[in-house]
Specification:
Elements (H helix, E strand, L loop, with lengths): L17 E3 L6 E3 L3 H18 L9 E5 L2 E6 L5 H18 L13 E7 L4 E9 L2 E2 L2 E5 L8 H5 L1 E3 L4 E2 L2 E8 L8 H12 L11 E3 L4 H11 L2
Parallel strand pairs: 11-12
Antiparallel strand pairs: 1-2, 3-4, 4-5, 5-6, 6-11, 7-10, 8-9
Bound molecules: acetyl coenzyme *A.
Length: about 220
């Protein structure tokens, strides 16, 4: 059977096969010059993008033993907006999102999880919505483990349900996952999205979730 898998020769190289960079988290083939070049380019851009130098006026909305959550609003100073744009570009790159235009750019709320190492290691972007459609079941379409599109084609109910807040992006730095950063971002969002009330999980919706996003949302919302 013909296979299109990339083959690598084990010629006793120091690093062989897939390697994960311990700083930027990129998985690449260390013995492949093209891959190494791509890693170098990504490494610098990524670490620069998530670097957080601290702002004079920052809106800290939650503090933890391993970091804090900062909220950025649309009319904040340009340095804060620029950081959000830089982080969003990295996130969208990883998620394979094309430029998604928020429906209410003036009402978008961005929550950044800042680690003690002064890095943006989590990001949640939310906007007001009026309704959402519940994901019903497993992906539709033919089974194909290589097709990303197939994995994203969740079947949704066609009955709209009232909702208040849409999460258009949630992302955690690969090397910081499964440390409850996403959970703390959503808890904080529920607390801060509408003044004076804590949103229930029925009032929030995740837009077009990835497989990771769906696993997280299912666990978080107990659905
Ligand atoms: N597989 C299975 N269960 C998971 C996963 C996973 N990949 N991620 C989270 N969970 C569940 C677990 O039950 C977990 O608790 P446990 O670790 O005690 O078992 C619980 O959710 C809470 O997880 P967190 O630690 O809070 O989640 P994390 O900080 O790792 O972030 C996220 C989850 C944001 C989905 C992360 O994996 C990520 O950034 N993935 C890549 C980007 C992405 O796909 N984002 C979602 C896009 S969809 C959207 O933006 C609307």
């Amino acid at each position: 059977k013909e296979t299109k898998d990339q083959l690598i020769i084990d010629a006793g190289q120091k690093h062989f096969g897939a390697t994960m960079c311990k700083s930027c988290g990129m998985i690449y083939t260390a013995s492949n010059p093209e891959d190494e070049m791509q890693h170098l380019q990504h490494h610098h851009r990524f670490l620069e993008g998530i670097k957080y130098t601290g702002w004079k006026k920052e809106r800290v909305v939650a503090e933890f033993w391993d970091g804090k959550i900062v909220l950025v609003l649309p009319h904040d100073p340009s340095y804060a907006i620029r950081k959000v744009e830089d982080v969003q570009e990295l996130v969208d790159n990883e998620l394979g999102f094309q430029q998604v235009v928020p429906s209410c750019p003036n009402k978008t709320k961005t929550f950044l999880f800042i680690s003690d190492e002064k890095r943006v290691v989590g990001c949640l972007i939310a906007e007001p919505i009026k309704q959402a459609f519940r994901v019903l079941s497993e992906p539709t379409g033919p089974e194909s483990p290589n097709s990303k599109e197939c994995h994203r084609a969740w079947q949704c109910s066609d009955v709209p349900e009232p909702a208040v807040c849409g999460i258009s992006r949630i992302w955690v730095f690969r090397l910081k996952r499964r440390k409850r950063i996403a959970r703390r971002l959503v808890d904080t969002l529920r607390n801060c999205f509408m003044f004076g009330c804590f949103l229930s999980t029925n009032e929030i919706a995740f837009s077009d979730p990835t497989p990771d996003g769906k696993l997280f949302a299912t666990k978080y919302c107990n659905t």
